[in-house]
Amino acid sequence: MAVTSNIKLIIAFADPDLNDEEKEEQVKKLLVQMRELDELEEIARVPDPNPPEGNKAIASFLSGLLMAEVSTANIKKLFGFLGDRLNNKPIKLTVKAPDGREMSVEASSKEEFEFAMQKAQEFLNNK
């Protein structure tokens, strides 16, 4: 397996007031917006490792989750982009560093999102 120097982010829409269908709409909207970013190495839905039995779909995805891969040079730009779009939506952000370390933060307001971004950047800068 090749070692990558990219950072992986898992974005989970965590609003308890939204049902799975509404979370899916949030994911689809963000996915379309993020596909326009040149800074991303990859953007995709998170595949379901255990799809429902009898599912005839080619791929099944976990509800409300999106995975992005970005270079260390572009992480601040991505955080800025996400902050503009997600700062008042309850989300859980999982950051996976190139060395395999992982951290998760939750935010549901602009202030919390800014704090979460700061903590994620500190985490990535500390090896």
SSE-based structural type:
alpha+beta
In the sheet with the most strands, the strands line up as 2-3-1-4-5
- Low-pLDDT residue spans: none
Count of helix runs: 3
CA radius of gyration is: 15 Å
Count of distinct structural domains: 1
Distance between the termini: 21 Å
Please tally the β strands and state the result.
Answer: 5
Please provide the ordered H/E string of secondary-structure elements: EHEEHEEH
**CATH topology call:** Alpha-Beta Plaits
Approximately how much helix is present in the residues?
A: 25-40%
Q: If classified by CATH, what would the architecture be? A: 2-Layer Sandwich
Strand content: 25-35%
Overall pLDDT metric: 86
> Which geometry do the CA atoms define?
globular
Instruction: Report the CATH C-level class.
Output: Alpha Beta
Let me know the largest β-sheet.
5 strands, antiparallel
